[in-house]
Design a protein that fits this description.
The protein has about 260 residues and is mainly alpha-helical. The chain folds into 2 domains: about 160 residues, Ferritin, core subunit, four-helix bundle (Ferritin, Up-down Bundle); about 60 residues, no CATH class. The protein is about 50% helix and about 5% strand. It has a two-stranded parallel ribbon. A two-stranded antiparallel sheet has the order 3-4. Strand 1, helix 9 and strand 2 form a beta-alpha-beta unit. The longest helix is centred in the first third of the chain and has 29 residues. It is elongated, with a radius of gyration of 24 Å. The structure holds manganese (II) ion (2 copies).
């Protein structure tokens, strides 16, 4: 169950309202990497998971994200407020100025409506936790970019708080992933095909006009892959192992 406490998780102060910045802040309110998406992703994963410890982590963090939603929504609202009355301010976000009277709604900065398509929920803990680590990384970099676009100290302080919490969550999800006791490449139940799984296909070759070079073969060998030259270029010299799909140079082919 939910209960609302009439205090923000972080007190928001704004010196001078900046409607254009308020519009940018909507990315963290109703955008793809925003707080509502995070809150819903973790909470719904929590509802789905049978593991009581993982459920608790997901529900704790999902609920904190709802508190973040309230903070970022309040901050965006303070910046957008002048859009209700002043033409110049309204130009920062005509959609919210005209349909919302300068109040926030679940849109991103370009006016696209929030959608459940933003959520990544698979029902497989080692997959969902990676989704969550990636979601936290995206939220972190979004806050970092927002921080670069305001000089308002109160806004900066709130964004710094929210950005920091995303790293905390990232750490929690990484620890939870490690706690599952699965290897880094163990996803689901079925093992990958031996041999094929270790082949790196050198599928981008040659030297480009912009200085692009073919370095991946060295890189791949250093990282434990068997390098296979582009199957497309060498089709006549390659044979495909029927059962595994692994590529091998024909024994009759010239070196
Ligand atoms: Mn958050
Ligand atoms: Mn987070």
């Amino acid at each position: 169950m939910y209960h609302h406490v009439k205090q923000l998780m972080y007190t928001v102060k704004v010196g001078e309202a900046d409607p254009r910045f308020g519009n940018m802040l909507l990315e963290q309110f109703g955008g793809a990497n925003g707080e509502l998406a995070a809150a819903m992703q973790y909470t719904i994963q929590g509802i789905n998971t049978p593991d009581p410890q993982l459920k608790d982590v997901l529900m704790d963090i999902g609920t904190e994200e709802l508190s973040h939603l309230e903070v970022i929504g309040t901050l965006a609202r303070m910046h957008l407020k002048p859009a209700a009355a002043a033409r110049k301010a309204a130009e920062a976000d005509p959609l919210l100025a005209i349909t919302g009277g300068g109040g926030v709604n679940l849109y991103n900065s370009q006016g696209s409506a929030w959608t459940a398509d933003y959520l990544k929920i698979t029902g497989q803990p080692e997959v969902d936790l990676r989704n969550n680590i990636a979601a936290e990384a995206r939220a972190k970099i979004t806050y970092e970019r927002l921080l670069a676009f305001t000089d308002d100290q109160g806004s900066k302080d709130a964004l710094q708080f929210l950005m920091t919490r995303e790293i905390t969550h990232m750490k929690a999800f990484m620890q939870a992933l490690e706690g599952l006791g699965k290897g880094p490449l163990e996803i689901g139940m079925l093992p990958p095909t031996p041999g094929l799984v270790d082949q790196f296909f050198n599928d981008s070759t040659g030297e480009g006009q912009e200085g692009a070079v073919d370095m991946s073969t060295t890189w791949a060998r250093q990282n434990g892959f068997e390098v296979v030259e582009s199957p497309a270029f060498h089709a006549d010299q390659m044979e495909v192992d029927g059962p595994t799909g692994a590529r091998r140079r024909r024994s009759s082919a010239k070196k």
